[in-house]
Amino acid sequence: MDERIREAKDTLGRECVVLGHHYQRDEVVRFADYRGDSYRLSQLAAQAAGQYIVFCGVHFMAESADILAHAGQSVVLPDLNAGCSMADMAEIGQVEDAWEQFVNLGLTDDEGHGITPLTYMNSTAAIKAFCGERGGMVCTSSNAKGAFNWAFRRNDKIFFLPDQHLGRNTGFARGIPLDEMVVWDPYQLQGGLTTDRLRRAKVILWKGHCSVHQRFLPEHVDRIRTTYPGMRVIVHPECRWEVCQKADGIGSTDHIIRSVEQAPAGSAFAIGTEIHLVNRLARENPDKHVITLDDSGCLCTTMFRISPQHLCWALENLVEGRVVNPIRVKDDVKTWARVALDRMLEIQ
């Protein structure tokens, strides 16, 4: 299988770039021309010059690549079943209904004069377009702080989708009290919130989460403190607020990687993020002690769906001139989603 993948890549040459997310399994990510988090891979997708972009990630990432791709380029997702449970938690009809209620309550208007909508990268193209059309933007864990600063220059309120934990942790780090951040539950009347609470809130958080990062609990940090005194705990901002408050450091996937790689030999880390990345960091930094925060392991099962067999099948079809599993965002959605993504790429 490895030989067939290498042969297909060699045949395609510069006409094909393979992008691999850090959470991807080793058997696949080793064939990536570039590895990165969703922010880094979005930048690379926008810069890709070849005819084909093969995205070894999940569906929303491939959608973003198609939005940012140049005319004539094709984006391929080796397995269409590689989705994201967090992205699925914010359905466009529910989001539009919530916004209509904000408008009816006088909190904003249709154009976003009153509330700035921000969506995490882990969302569908339709949600990105929704934010772009209403004066908002996309953010990632790498630039969420900058996105919040940008949004508050426009309005006094933020509507943050779909990960409540990233939104809460970012807002709290900016000095917003917890009682000024509320969670909108799309399955309850008026999101389960009173009109007064909505009016007083600075940040309205969508009730969504990452199934991997929500597994980490405060007691996991406590156990590390007891078992490995002095070990540094670093967690992703998609983790619960209570976990982040107990950690020594909070940061994006790239921040976590840099923290480990730049640390002196002998450093010890317990990391709260996806297990494939943690294991890879441990292997690539043998002079340091790197373990997962939760020893039961936290696997991104949807990312794991992409296998060497899927990658080989996609590449060999490209060699034969067939584009399988193309990801194509509708033009009307692409226009406003591109606006939201372009704003993201301008924010540090």
Summary keywords:
348 residues, alpha/beta, Rossmann fold, 3 domains, 4-stranded parallel sheet, 16 helices, globular
Task: Give an overview in words.
- The chain has 348 residues and is α/β, with parallel strands linked by helices.
- The protein has 3 domains: 2-83 and 302-328, NadA-like (Rossmann fold); 87-209, Rossmann fold (3-Layer(aba) Sandwich); 213-292, Rossmann fold, CATH 3.40.50.10800.
- It contains 16 helices and 13 strands.
- The protein has helices at 2-12, 26-29, 38-47, 59-68, 85-88, 92-104, 125-133, 144-154, 164-173, 195-200, 218-227, 241-246, 253-261, 275-284, 308-319, 331-346, and strands spanning 16-21, 34-36, 52-56, 74-76, 115-120, 137-139, 157-161, 181-184, 203-206, 232-235, 249-250, 268-272, 289-292.
- The strands form 3 sheets. Strands 6-5-7-9-8 form a 5-stranded parallel β-sheet, sandwiched between helices.
- Helix 12 links the parallel strand 10 and strand 11.
- It starts with a helix and ends with a helix.
- The mean pLDDT is 94.
What CATH calls the topology of the largest domain is Rossmann fold
- The CATH top-level class label of the largest domain: Alpha Beta
Mean of the pLDDT scores? Answer: 94
Instruction: Compute the number of structural domains.
Output: 3
The helix/strand order is HEHEHEHEHHEHEHEHEHEHEHEHEHEHH
What's the N-to-C terminus distance? 40 Å
Low-confidence stretches: none
* Strand adjacency order, main sheet: 6-5-7-9-8
